[in-house]
Design brief:
The protein has 794 residues and is α+β, with helices and mostly antiparallel strands. The chain has 18 helices and 39 strands.
Length: 794
């Protein structure tokens, strides 16, 4: 065909040009009516749903996090800031929708009318929908009368400039009062570089969180002389939230000069964060007062060339001797040459309180050029052992944190058949070889019957499909306990088929303050598609040591990124619900699981415990313990260690509940850091076991590293960071006043009920009763008990 035969004729081109000219001239006249029609149609659709959508203001009358700051994957609170938002919230049941780390929609429901539930954003700038339903409807869907507010969580930005997401590696400080210059660390106007520390400054008492979970992700809380009005106006709920966070492992820095002492007298509940000896008794009697202090020791520590004027500070309790309290950080003298502590650190439950006997927000420290260095010593925000060694592990494994290795370990299930890439490649090559050469060489060349291919090809496809279906079926686990056959148990076995739950549990108790926390990380695997209703509660055995349950909530855990490894997987599954955790258990409902998929969940538990507090004895002038000890737990402790400072005492393999060890000197002792790194002495040197970032089968060793990462050397040893689960690290607790009793429990601390099907860890020889639990998956439980230590006179 010639080119002239496929070209458009001249009359046709003339017609096309005329039509395009007419359309171009008429389009502006039709665009405005078309836009108005689309707007009216969308508004009609919203009116038909009965929802009132408010998107006028990006904040929409609600503040996200603490002063607009939050972390991905951490509990985040919302607070009504406008009169309109408070009126809408008053008397309404609230449901908040967002997405988890897998992209699925999650609903968080409030416990009662007028309350805003806490949520966990699964990604940066995650969608956020607030549904306010009248109390009489109590519905989370778009029923008539509901108010629906649609927005998003803030993106990563400069925390000093407004609401922003705070990255994992950026320290986060909540300042009640003056931030002491922490908000200026790393600021460089020439390089257009912002601060390297995120500071959330609370200026009014309404901004204080009302739940201890709302402090999740906060590294330090600063309290100084400018916090008087804020703390004095705090409600009982806000007070209990801050104290509960410290008891659960939070850290507070308190400035106690003349202004700081007035703050304590105005908000006397702060005394609950300080040891009674030297603080509570003296403040109540009015004996606690300030003294004039010599700044020479501060000038020496900070290597200052600028003279610092004398200042007034509180006389802190002695940190040496038989009646010592706290750990000495900076020693100094008064202007009368009397030795006094200037800075000390005290235990408060599982947390720490650092006290500086000076008003760092007042003169002469405000204009002192070394104030930042001094605050940096008191508030250690950066890990000095952190190195760039995590990059090779990221290339090797896909994750850069111990949380990622833990997730890989929990994501190994006994019922899931593991197929390597080589096997998959072999199956593909075999299928190609059977279809193509078999049809050509055997059917056409050998038998010379081409029509026979209509039989051989379907036969090969059916056989390969049958083999692949068998390979993808769940494995039968030997030794799995079976229940007696009955009608209801048959249904329960059908539900349990293809379902397995692996979990790590960490339980910490303080025998001094009688407080405790529990954390369970559960990864559920489902072979077929199903919906789960899961409920997690402390078991009957653990209830023997618990006097009051404060918080127990279950929610999604993990988010996309280098910390956990992997990528975000989008899903179109319907929303699932996180139920309120103010009761004795945490529950979720309607969790949709795709075929052959897993889901990561976590349970946070806070409680008051009831343990015998028998102090251990320490030799004077020595780091070794003497005398005996008793197991304060109501359950047996397996493979236990008694850790004091840098020494580990190996307990019997099974230390029974209430069993007493007469003399600790009779136990085998070892350097605790050597124990963590499995270091052994050679003839002229020592050798440590290298940490394997790819290992997923050494669960006990991984749990030890999660609990004492810094004691083992931190990133220098593991080449992994420790961010999402860093609060589990108790290295800083290993001081002269505390010993840690650590071991493994034979049975889980929590009971997990899946649609009426319970699971608990037990031996395969146990026989199941009619109401007993069923074993599913692998559950490891580690417990740590903080025991007080006193110094003997001899």
């Amino acid at each position: 065909m010639r080119a002239s035969e496929i070209t458009t004729s001249r009359p046709a081109m003339t017609v096309l040009n005329a039509l395009s000219d007419v359309v171009g001239r008429c389009l502006p006249f039709f665009s405005l009516p078309l836009l108005l029609f689309c707007t009216a149609w969308s508004s009609t659709g919203l009116a038909q749903r009965g929802d009132s959508v408010d998107q006028e203001n990006p904040q929409l009358g609600f503040q996200i996090g603490i002063t607009g700051h939050y972390r991905v994957g951490r509990w985040t609170a919302l607070r009504a800031t406008s009169t309109k938002a408070r009126d809408q919230l008053d008397g309404s049941m609230c449901t908040i929708e967002t997405t988890d780390g897998d992209g699925a929609t999650v609903r968080y429901r409030s416990a009662g009318p007028g309350e805003l539930p806490l949520v966990i954003p699964g990604q940066e700038a995650a969608p956020l929908k607030i549904i306010l339903a009248p109390r009489e409807t109590q519905s989370a869907s778009g029923t008539p009368g509901n108010t629906v507010i649609v927005t998003r969580f803030p993106e990563v930005g400069e925390p000093s400039e407004g609401p922003a997401m705070i990255p994992d590696k950026m320290p986060w400080v909540v300042s009640i009062g003056d931030p002491l210059g922490l908000d200026q660390i790393g600021v460089n106007a020439l390089l257009n570089r912002g601060a390297s520390v995120a500071v959330s400054r609370i200026r009014v008492s309404n901004e204080l969180p009302v739940s201890e979970l709302a402090y999740d992700g906060v590294d330090w809380v600063l309290i100084n002389g400018q916090a008087g009005d804020v703390l004095a106006g705090a409600t009982d709920q806000q007070v209990e939230a801050l104290i509960g966070w410290v008891h659960a492992g939070g850290q507070v820095h308190l400035s106690l000069g003349e202004e700081g002492l007035q703050v304590i007298r105005a908000a006397d509940w702060l005394l609950r964060l300080l040891p009674e000896t030297g603080f509570g008794r003296d403040v109540a009697s009015g004996a606690l007062d300030t003294v004039q202090m010599d700044p020479a020791s501060l000038e020496t520590i900070t290597q200052s060339q600028t003279r610092l004027e004398p200042f007034r500070g509180v006389r802190l309790p002695k940190t040496t001797g038989s009646d010592a309290v706290g750990q000495l950080l900076i020693a100094g003298r008064t202007t009368r040459r009397v030795s006094v502590p200037i800075a000390a650190r005290y235990h408060c439950g599982l947390g720490l309180v650092t006290v500086m006997a000076a008003d760092l927000d007042q003169a002469p420290f405000v204009d002192w050029d070394k104030r930042g260095d001094l605050v940096g010593r008191m508030v250690p925000l950066f890990d000095e052992t952190a190195t760039e060694t995590s990059k090779p592990s990221l290339r090797l494994t896909g994750f850069s944190d111990l949380a990622g290795q833990t997730l890989r370990t929990l994501d190994r299930f006994s019922i899931k058949r593991r197929t390597g890439f080589a096997v998959v490649a072999l199956v593909v090559l075999t299928s190609i070889a059977l279809v193509a050469p078999l049809d050509y060489l055997l059917v056409r060349r050998g038998l010379k019957k081409p029509l026979l291919g209509w039989f051989t090809f379907p036969t090969v496809v059916v056989l390969l499909s049958a083999g692949l279906i068998y390979a993808s079926s769940p494995r039968e686990v030997p030794g799995r306990r079976e229940e007696p056959a009955s009608e209801d148990r048959a249904a329960r076995r059908e539900l349990a088929s293809g379902l397995e739950l692996n979990a790590f549990e960490f339980v910490d108790l303080d025998a001094d303050t009688q407080t405790g926390r529990g954390f369970r990380w559960t990864v559920a695997y489902s072979h077929p598609a199903r919906e789960l209703d899961l409920q997690v509660a402390p078991s009957m055995d653990s209830q023997a040591s618990v006097s009051d349950q404060l918080v127990c909530v279950t929610a999604p855990f993990g988010y996309p990124g280098a910390v956990f490894g992997g990528i975000r997987v989008g899903t179109n599954s319907k929303p699932w619900t996180v139920l309120d955790g103010s009761g004795d258990f945490g529950a979720i409902s309607g969790l949709s699981m795709s075929p052959r998929s897993s889901k990561s969940l976590a349970t946070w538990n806070r409680f008051d415990c009831d343990l015998p507090s028998t102090p251990l004895q320490r030799r004077r002038g020595s780091e070794l313990l003497q005398g005996g000890m008793i197991n304060p737990l109501p359950v047996d402790l397996l493979d236990g260690l008694l850790i004091y400072r840098n020494w580990a005492y190996f307990l019997p393999t099974r230390l029974r509940a209430g069993e007493t060890i007469a003399e600790l000197d009779s136990l085998r002792q070892k350097n605790f850091r050597w124990q963590l790194s499995r270091q052994r002495a050679l003839e002229s040197a020592s050798e440590s076991e290298r940490w394997d970032v790819t290992a997923t089968d050494r669960q006990d060793r991984l749990m030890e590293m999660l609990m004492f990462h810094q004691a083992a050397g931190g990133e220098r040893y593991t080449r992994l960071s420790h961010q999402p689960l860093g609060w589990l690290d108790m290295t800083e607790i290993l001081t002269e006043e505390r010993a840690v009793l650590m071991g493994r429990l034979a049975k889980p601390w929590f009971d997990c009920d899946v649609q009426g099907l319970s699971e608990a860890q037990g031996s395969s020889t146990d026989t199941a009763s009619e109401t007993g639990p069923t074993t599913m998956g692998n559950v490891k439980t580690m417990v740590r008990v903080l025991l007080p230590v006193i110094q003997t006179r001899r």
